[in-house]
Structure prediction request, 930 residues.
Amino acid sequence: MSNESNNGKPLNVVGKPFRKVDARAKCTGQTKFADDIVLPRMLACKILRSHEPHALIKNIDTSKALALPGVFAVVTGKDFPIPYGILPVSQDEHALCVDKVRFVGDPVAAVAAIDEDVAFDAMNLIEVEYDRLQTITSIEEGLLVDEPRIHEYGDGGNVHKKVSLEFGDVDEGFAEADLVREDTFFYEGNTHLPMEQHAAVAHFDSDQKLTLWSSTQTPHYVHRALAKVLEIPASHIRVIATPNGGGFGGKSDPFNHEVVVSKLAMITGRPVKCTLTREEVFYCHRGRHPVLMHVRTGVKKDGAITAMHFRSFLDGGAYGSYGVASTFYTGALQTVTYDVPRYKFQGARVFTNKPPCGPKRGHGTPQPRYALEVHLDKIAEQLNLDPAEMRRQHLVPPNSVTANYLRIGSMGLGACLDKVVEGSDWKKKFSWSNRQSAIGNRQSHKGIGIACSSYICGAGLPIYWNNMPQSGVQLRLDRQGGVCVMCGSTDIGQGSDSILAYIVAEILGIDPFDIRVVTADTDLTPVDLGSYSSRVTLMTGNAAIQAAERARELLTIAVAEKLTVPIENISFAERRAFDVENPEVGVSFAEAVVLAESKFGTIGTVGSYSPPRSPGKYKGAGVGPSPAYSYSAAIAEVDVDAATGIVTVDRVWIAHDIGKSINPVLVMGQVEGSVYMGLGEILMEEMSYRANRNAVHKFPSMLEYKSPTTLEMCDVKTYLIEDPDPNGPFGAKEVGQGPLLPVPPAVANAVYNAV
Amino acid sequence: MRNGTRQKAHISFTLNGESTEVAFAPHKTLLEVLREDLNLTGTKHGCELGECGTCTVLVDGRSILSCLMLGLDAEGRHVETVEGMAEGAQLHPLQETFADTGAAQCGYCSPGFMLAAKELIAKTPKPSRDEIKEALSGNLCRCTGYIKIYEAVELAAAKMRGEELELPRESIYGL
Prediction:
């Protein structure tokens, strides 16, 4: 693996396995997560949640709760008349329900009290009278039952959103095909299950300004929602995202508890904290949509696709959340792996009386990727083609535009496929006829399966329409040689704070641990839209490069003048600025800052990043475009016990096209973590509700919501493909979400192969 | 007020090697006493029902779930939390290797994992991969897929045995 930048300069930081800048704090228990924040006079907040799945609120009596000693305030929906929501097109949530509840767990009233015990007692003294409505709990009911409507908006009845897109004439494509195959798939919903429960602390200080600390992935969007709902100027609100104890998309919406503690702090004049119980985290959800999918594909004898028609039906749960984007995403990325010359997509999202679905790692794309990759295996079997070879033959070329106007840059999927095929000894192990051939004892069937995938490196468009950058970085250099990098991005464990430090250190020739990183504070840091859509490394990285290069330029001018050498001779490394032709002639980095500050005044620079414009101009073209696409290929080897049906995944080989690793250890961790989460989805995890009992979540607990432990996790063989993308910082692409995508279909294909 | 009507309980115990006295509402769990009454927020919670292992601490050298133990039961015992792992500025080998291998991503489960691993290494100085999996099977991590955690434990155990062991190249850069 080469470790040089574009201009051939050796890299000193980028590509090296440095520790994360916050690793020491995390390993000593010093990291302050939201619930670790304790302020003097702080009150505890508890939120009463609906036990009805769908009902009108007739009356709420808070008098007994208010009368309880130690209670400072009780609020209900009347205190929050203004709706909010993450997408401008679905502002359908209230911090506390105003006139109706839509799922078991919907927030109805909230208490601020002297401590959590009193708040809990008070919460239980609140009396709510409901008028029950018919409950809608499935995709089928959402499509068929028009009344009662869960929301008064949408595309009719309980359909939230219908989309329909066609690129080229698919009928013509099907007519040209040698084989047209249609399959139906259902992908079950599941949830993020971050180890940290959501928590938020609000403080309305003496100068009448609000500060909110919250375990959120998107402080900028929370900031906007608070300003709207609380009706105070955004300039009087400060949102600080605390380090997230895992996010995976589950902390990307503005949440009711964030709004509620803010309001309670304003009412009581005291800090207020709300930490959700694990059960409440299950109700927050915003996780993977259950999706029913029909896919119809025409292929030539060699597996070349002539046309594809993909239909998806999403069970959205009770609110909009990111659902409109999720719906488009179930149809957006089918075209970026294999060449699909004609493509038609129809999608519909329905409202149901269950916790709202939203973005989970892979946002709307693991479900269709699962369907597509299993469907392709069925086609390969029908054509008697090797499924790895068939995929390899028909890859989308690099630097091309897909049928749905997505611009592909670097494309390392071929290299990914080659690595896993070779590493797993696929050619020896796989054949369509080795099904039923038990290895070892008769009960145990071994199988092997393959799948590929792709994911965006940041969404091309922001969530609300604007012409401003998606990411901003501000850099301050002081005369002692200190460097502070400020950015609105939020570290959710993926290491985004460290990426900023590595990139700035690379450009300024200093050590990443010399740098102070200040992030995710709307008062102190320029806007970055947040940790979602795998956008952070690419977008903040490019913004950081710009800010650091601007600072380096100022230092270069001042140092060149001092050393009386040409500007182009000045280089930065090992905390020095020096003449490349005569490296002993130079100054320390701190001296370079002094020279620059003497010449230009205080040294501060900014950088920002806006993604390139997408070539697509159609309605819905906003979902799918990205500055770059990452690629992954996975092969799973499984063991199926024919008597019990128990599937054990022995090993996964996975190759990921990362473009360029900014830090390989962090990349490996994301790949392994993605494999883990993909295994959980295909083998164990399920958001399951009692259909006949109020659509109550069957098991809102970590014990019974089964997720892989050390005993279920398989062996993982990882390959990193470095095919630098011109749009990525140092060529880097995403890794946080993409490697999850091929795992569920690879396992499913392996199980089919086994039995 | 529920708390106000009750007298506080009072215990003396050894916390991270220091003799400690604390008064707290008697129904509180050790987890709550550590976090709320002693301000040691390094011990985390993920469920408060004994399901996730996040709140693991050592009591007399044995790993226990502090959310399932009453604070009162810590009377006279030796309790160790993540805050007590380092010796001064010198990190414990597990802390070093968790930091270096990327075993701590979000870091929320890390204190629990490190303490469970510390108990394992004390009993089994050279644990096999399977012994590590077994010992850590009560701790959930959603970030890492556990692999970097196994590697961190193996490296730390080697360090504590006085052996030189490095992370294999394929664990850092892939195959």
Observations:
- The radius of gyration of chain B is 17 Å.
- Chain B has a mean pLDDT of 96.
- Chain B touches chain A through 66 residues (CB under 8 Å).
